[in-house]
Specification:
Layout (H helix, E strand, L loop, with lengths): L1 H21 L8 H29 L4 H26 L17 H16 L27
Helix pairs in contact: 2-3
Amino acid sequence: MELVFIALVLVGVLAYIAAPLFAATRARVAPAARANESLLIERDAAYAALRDLDFDFQLGKLSERDYHALRERAKANAAQILQQLDAASMPDNGHATLDSGPQTADADDIERAVAQVRAARRKADAHCGNCGKPYHAGDQFCARCGNKL
């Protein structure tokens, strides 16, 4: 009798532990959310590839001809990913959508804010005072000479 009781308890515990593996009510992620997440991962990988190319060229691992060819290819890939991200975030009416809470700002205000951010990113005219190499906003040291920016 004890063996039957132990067997029943063991089967119950195993069923309780294995239940999540067989549950059909798993949270399902919307395909659009998965596509956006995939594009964001690809964007980050493209940025990392560009940084790695720049670093390898600065270290002398790449010839100038190879560097320029690889950089153009990587830039084209990054641009394509950014276009896909922009297209995924624009509904049919051409205005960007915000997924975070209720919208209180006017769509034109949002468009202006986005344009200002993009213009600020394009303005990367900052150059190292020591060697003249351009640097990105947020950099604390020059990638070429190590000078504090």
